[in-house]
Design the sequence.
């Protein structure tokens, strides 16, 4: 049997599985998983005029990126954040990197709160600028892009989770339909009869839904239903029809 027909036969359970799995993934991601927000501040390296010509701007960028990850910067930024976070926890929340082939340094902070993530990235950037000024005696770092407050959580990504749940549930529904067909030994279609019994199909009785039967009541021939009782029940009409059919050969034999 074709795969499309198998899926169609089990369409109800397949759709239910997809809807249930996607809904559960959405509920877990929205109500169970802890949300986290990410904010990024960008520093621009501007070498002073008296800087050593042998030191390129790219080298300065990497040097200041290393400075941003020093204990001096973590402690200064943690003190500025008061009691919100410790220096060790701030270090675990923050990622500092020098953008390749540029004079930019990104400071990315991730926290349970969007406001806290913005404050952490900003304070690390400011602490790096102060440390660079104290060490070199000149301001070679500028805050190119301040850390904005995120409007959406960086984790969990609801769109990716819902898409992944939909794809996995759809694959599971297809696998379930194929598996049920594999263990189903009943004859369901004309093709099944021809394939397994090797017999031609002369006629088929359709399966009528209760709603169709209600809207299309069964009407018996007039000679099978008693005219004396218009309100005769369906059971009595069937008995009359059976008696009429059983007595039909005797009527044909009589002269």
Sequence:
């Amino acid at each position: 049997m074709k795969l499309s027909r198998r899926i169609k036969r089990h369409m109800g359970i397949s759709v239910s599985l997809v809807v249930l799995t996607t809904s559960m993934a959405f509920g877990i991601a929205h109500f169970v998983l802890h949300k986290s927000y990410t904010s990024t501040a960008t520093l621009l390296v501007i070498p002073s005029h008296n800087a050593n010509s042998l030191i390129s701007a790219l080298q300065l960028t990497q040097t200041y990126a290393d400075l941003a990850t020093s204990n001096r910067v973590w402690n200064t930024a943690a003190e500025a954040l008061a009691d919100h976070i410790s220096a060790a926890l701030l270090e675990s929340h923050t990622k500092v990197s020098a953008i390749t082939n540029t004079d930019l340094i990104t400071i990315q902070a991730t926290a349970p709160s969007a406001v806290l993530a913005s404050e952490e990235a900003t304070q690390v950037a400011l602490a790096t600028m102060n440390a660079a000024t104290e060490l070199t005696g000149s301001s070679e770092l500028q805050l190119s892009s301040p850390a904005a407050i995120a409007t959406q959580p960086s984790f969990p990504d609801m769109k990716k989770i819902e898409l992944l749940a939909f794809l996995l549930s759809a694959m599971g529904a297809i696998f379930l339909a194929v598996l049920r067909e594999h263990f189903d030994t009943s004859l369901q279609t004309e093709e099944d009869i021809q394939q397994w019994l090797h017999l031609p199909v002369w006629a088929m009785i359709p399966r009528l839904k209760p709603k169709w039967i209600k809207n299309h009541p069964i009407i018996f021939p007039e000679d099978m239903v008693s005219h004396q009782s218009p309100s005769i029940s369906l059971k009595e009409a069937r008995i009359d029809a059976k008696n009429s059919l059983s007595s039909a050969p005797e009527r044909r034999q009589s002269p």
User: Anything to note?
Assistant: The chain is about 55% helix and 10% strand. The two ends are 57 Å apart (CA to CA). The mean pLDDT is 78. Residues 158-183 form the longest helix (26 residues).
